[in-house]
Specification:
Number of strands: 3
Radius of gyration: 14 Å
Order of helices and strands: EEE
Helix content: under 10%
Oligomer: single chain
Distance between the termini: 33 Å
Shape: flat
Structural class: mainly beta
C-alpha cells in the first residue's frame, strides 16, 4: 500500500501480509515501482 507520495518522484510503501500486518516499509523511487494485480484477468478469446 502506498502511504505517501513525494512529488510523484518517490513513494513510501507499506509491505503487509493478507491480515494487514506490516513487515516492511520503504521509500521507493517511482521508476522502480510496478503495478500488482490481485484479481484474475479475463482470458483472451
Amino acid at each position: 500500500m502506498i502511504l505517501m507520495s513525494f512529488d510523484d518522484r518517490a513513494y513510501l510503501v507499506d509491505f503487509a501480509d493478507a491480515q494487514g500486518n506490516t513487515y516492511a516499509m520503504e521509500t521507493i523511487p517511482s521508476e522502480k515501482l510496478m503495478q500488482l494485480v490481485y484479481e484474475p484477468l479475463p482470458a483472451y478469446a
